[in-house]
Structure formats: structure tokens, C-alpha cells
Design goal:
CATH architecture of the largest domain in chain B: 3-Layer(aba) Sandwich
Mean pLDDT of chain B: 95
Largest sheet of chain A: 5 strands, antiparallel
CATH architecture of the largest domain in chain A: 2-Layer Sandwich
Number of strands of chain B: 9
Number of strands of chain A: 9
Distance between the termini of chain A: 47 Å
CATH superfamily of the largest domain in chain A: Aspartate carbamoyltransferase regulatory subunit, N-terminal domain
Strand content of chain B: 5-15%
Shape of chain A: elongated
Largest interface: A-B, 16 and 18 residues
Number of domains of chain B: 2
Strand content of chain A: 35-45%
CATH class of the largest domain in chain A: Alpha Beta
CATH topology of the largest domain in chain B: Rossmann fold
Helix content of chain B: 25-40%
Distance between the termini of chain B: 19 Å
Low-confidence stretches of chain A: none
Shape of chain B: globular
Oligomer: heterodimer
Low-confidence stretches of chain B: none
Largest sheet of chain B: 5 strands, parallel
Number of helices of chain A: 3
Number of domains of chain A: 2
Strand order of the largest sheet of chain A: 2-3-1-4-5
Structural class of chain A: mainly beta
Order of helices and strands of chain B: HEHEHEHEHEHEHEEHEH
Strand order of the largest sheet of chain B: 7-6-5-8-9
Chain lengths: ~150, ~300
């Protein structure tokens, strides 16, 4: 072999969504939050890629899948600086920034062991409290505040 | 959805004042059967003698009938029925539900499932709004006003839910606070941040003597053993404060001592005979305030 490829080329998306600038350690959580585990679409995941912004970043490319803004914005909880590229016919047709949701439902677990949501089939509801990069969740039921790191 | 009382924050300043004024009427005349023909459920999933008797007396004095239970062990809950199903069933029978439950957030959830108003009579360590309203009523009755008072909270300010709710409710009335607590049981940062945002002044001390003589209300609390996970920590702080009559020589004339009861050793019995002791009358006030809450939520006052 005369030409050794230094890079393994990942085939470009024809149609789909590219999520970039995810903190490397949160890529698996991102898959969870977007409900991507177990779906049949082709997904390419990169972790610990070099990034000027973060040092190490993660990237997720999902073929033939487009999301509602509400779904994507949930990602802001763990990746507030992530960017979203919508690809159609190999072209980036839209770039989006995430907007921190004010409320989330049915997503995170309350960290208070005495909260009703941890004992009965009750869908969790939280108000998102963001101060700079520190994000926490106020439980609608027990009124306790959970740090975002302890609930995902 | 009908109006419930789950957290003290559910009531606006106007609603708080309305309930307190209504309670005054009930104190003047405590037998008023304005709710004759109504049925009210008192469902207590954990035992509580004082709160339950006070609520049930309030219901009876308003002329309504009470159904319910005072302990979940003999009910379908012990067969594994969910809270949702219990509440759905009970709310079909009655006009109002008063509930206490050991899990935090249970009352909020019940109010979302119920077709009738719910009064939270305590959900774990979270909220107990009728206690807060009777504290406010006691402050108003002893001081003649709620505005611009200096309130000294003493004891377990870390786990004590009554102090947290009272702080939130009093924030409508331009108060000044003193927090007297040992290092281990200081007022949590989130409540101090809440006061800072509202521009309300507070000072912190570990000494009970520091602010006895310049406060209008001395709000004593018990160090609750059940809140501690570390028994050694409890032993260190359980007897940290003990108020005695001899310490009250230079207090303000209008100063009154409140306590949510039960007390253990934090107030000596010799304080009971001083003109400053108000905690037994405070417990009685709970009856009038609960009559007012019930009749307000049912649209009769």
C-alpha cells in the first residue's frame, strides 16, 4: 500500500442532524436525552476529538433524523454550547444554537430520596435554574434543588 | 382546577391577609356551622396528634363531617394501592381533602390528581403551610401588625421547615431577621440568597443571649432527632440552647416567644409563667386559622 490514509474518513451525511461541541464526557448522556439508544438510524459518534473551544469535544451525527426544537433544547442541560447542523442533500441548510428550556418533564430523576417521584409512578417536573454555567433543577413536587450533575 | 394550599408560596400577600382577618372572626365566634352538610376527608398517612386534632376540630366547628384515617397501616395503602388511586377514590366522596404524608411532594401530586381542593398538613420535611399561617396570625395578634418586625429564629435552622416557610411568608412584610443557630444547624444558603434578592436584612449568631433584648418575636424551635443521620452530631447540638425566665430581664415589653411545639428542653418550664410566653395560645390559634383556610378554599369566606 503506497498511500496510507492518516485519517479514517467518515462518510458525509446526505440527510440528517449533526450535533457538535458536546462536552466529551456527556456524549452518552446526550444519546440518552435524545432517545437515540436502540433506534435503527445510522449514527456516527466521535468522542475526545480536539477542539479549540473545549479541549476535548464530542460529536454525534444522525442520518435521516430531524428533531423538534423542544427535543433539542433539552440537550442544553448537559451541553449548553452545543451547535446543531441540519443537513439536506449533503449541504448544511440550517445551523441552530440551543435555548435552555425553562421547564422539563419526564426527563431527569429527583435526587431527594424522600421525593414522591422516587416512590410512585409520577412523571418528574422541574424548573431549570441557570446561573452562568451552573445549572440546577427545582423539583415541582418536593421543592428541593438538584445539581444537574447529580440527576443525569 | 380548584384552589389548594400546598406550599405557603401558593398564597399571595392578599390571600394571606384575607385568611388572617377571617381567622379573627372565628376567634370571636368559634362555632359557625357554615359548612353544614359538607364532608371533609382527613387522611393521615403518618401519625400526627396535634395537627390532626386541630384540623378535625376545625371541621367540626364549621359544621361539616369528617371521614378519614390517622394511620395508613389499616388501609388499602398497605395492600400497595398508589397514592393516585387513593386520592381519586376519596376525592369522589368528599368536598375537601386534608392530608399528611411522609413523602415530600405527595400533597402537590395529590392536588393534581384530586377533583376537590387539598390542604397540605405536612409532606415530610417539605411544607406545612397551616403552621406558617398560624405563626403569622400569632405574630399579628401579639404585635398588632406584621410590618417592620425583628424576628429572632433560634435552634435548628438547617432542617426546621417551619422557620423556612415563616421566612418566606414574612418576606412580604419588610422584616428584619436574626438567625441564632450552632454552626452545624445554620440557615441554608438558598434562604439567605432569597433574602438578599428581596433586600431583607439578617444577622447570624451562635449565642442565644446576643439578640434576646432587641427582637419583637423570639421563634424557638426544637432540634429534631429524626432529621439527623449522624447520632453523634445530634448529641453535640441537642441541648445547645435553653431559654430560662432569668434571661428575660431586659427584653422588649412587646416581645413574645413562639414555638411550633412540641418542646423538649429548649424552653424551661419557668418561662411559661412569664408574660412573654405565647406558645400555648399559638397552638390554640391554629384552630381559628385552620377554620379560616378551610372556609376560604371552599369558597365560603
Amino acid at each position: 500500500m503506497e498511500n496510507i490514509n492518516k485519517e479514517l474518513k467518515v462518510s458525509a451525511l446526505e440527510n440528517g442532524t449533526v450535533l457538535d461541541h458536546i462536552p466529551a464526557e456527556n456524549v452518552y448522556k446526550a444519546l440518552d436525552i435524545l432517545g437515540l439508544k436502540g433506534i435503527s438510524n445510522q449514527i456516527t459518534i466521535g468522542i475526545n476529538l480536539n477542539s479549540k473551544l473545549f479541549g476535548k469535544k464530542g460529536i454525534i451525527k444522525i442520518a435521516d433524523r430531524f428533531f423538534e426544537d423542544d427535543e433539542l433544547n433539552r440537550l442544553a442541560l448537559i451541553a449548553p454550547h452545543a451547535t446543531v447542523n441540519i443537513i439536506r442533500n449533503f449541504q448544511v441548510v440550517e445551523k441552530k444554537k440551543l435555548v435552555m428550556p425553562e421547564r422539563i418533564e419526564g426527563l431527569a430523576k429527583c435526587m431527594n430520596p424522600k421525593c414522591i417521584t422516587n416512590h410512585q409512578p409520577v412523571k418528574t417536573k422541574f424548573t431549570v435554574i441557570g446561573e452562568g454555567d451552573k445549572i440546577s433543577l427545582l423539583c415541582h413536587y418536593c421543592e428541593k434543588i438538584s445539581d444537574i450533575k447529580s440527576v443525569f | 382546577m380548584s384552589k389548594s394550599l400546598i406550599s405557603i408560596q401558593d398564597f399571595s400577600k392578599e390571600e394571606i391577609l384575607h385568611v388572617l382577618e377571617t381567622a379573627k372572626e372565628f376567634e370571636k365566634n368559634r362555632t359557625q356551622d357554615i359548612l353544614a352538610g359538607k364532608v371533609i376527608a382527613c387522611i393521615f398517612f403518618e401519625p400526627s396528634t396535634r395537627t390532626r386534632l386541630s384540623f378535625e376540630t376545625a371541621v367540626n366547628r364549621l359544621g361539616a363531617k369528617v371521614i378519614g384515617f390517622s394511620d395508613a397501616s389499616n388501609t388499602s395503602v398497605s395492600k400497595g394501592e398508589t397514592l393516585k388511586d387513593t386520592i381519586k377514590m376519596v376525592s369522589n366522596y368528599v368536598d375537601l381533602i386534608i392530608m399528611r404524608h411522609p413523602l415530600e411532594g405527595s400533597s402537590r401530586y395529590a392536588s393534581e390528581v384530586s377533583s376537590v381542593p387539598v390542604i397540605n398538613a405536612g409532606d415530610g420535611a417539605n411544607q406545612h403551610p397551616s403552621q406558617t399561617l398560624l405563626d403569622l396570625y400569632s405574630i399579628m395578634q401579639t404585635q398588632g401588625r406584621l410590618d417592620h418586625l425583628k424576628i429572632n429564629m433560634v435552634g435548628d435552622l438547617k432542617y426546621g421547615r417551619t422557620t423556612h416557610s415563616l421566612l418566606q411568608a414574612m418576606s412580604h412584610f419588610s422584616p428584619e431577621f436574626v438567625f441564632t443557630a450552632p454552626e452545624e444547624l445554620k440557615m441554608p444558603v438558598e434562604y439567605k440568597d432569597f433574602l438578599k434578592k428581596k433586600g431583607i436584612r439578617y444577622t447570624e449568631t451562635t449565642s442565644l443571649e446576643d439578640h434576646l433584648n432587641d427582637c419583637d418575636i423570639l421563634y424557638m424551635t426544637r432540634v429534631q432527632q429524626e432529621r439527623f443521620t449522624d447520632p453523634m452530631e445530634y448529641e453535640r447540638v441537642k441541648d445547645v440552647y435553653r431559654l430560662e425566665a432569668s434571661m428575660l430581664g431586659n427584653v422588649k415589653e412587646n416581645m413574645k416567644i413562639l414555638h411550633p411545639l412540641p418542646r423538649v428542653s429548649e424552653i424551661d418550664q419557668d418561662v411559661d409563667d412569664t408574660p412573654y410566653a405565647y406558645y400555648f395560645k399559638q397552638a390554640e390559634n391554629g384552630l381559628y386559622v385552620r377554620m379560616a383556610i378551610i372556609s376560604y378554599l371552599m369558597g365560603y369566606r
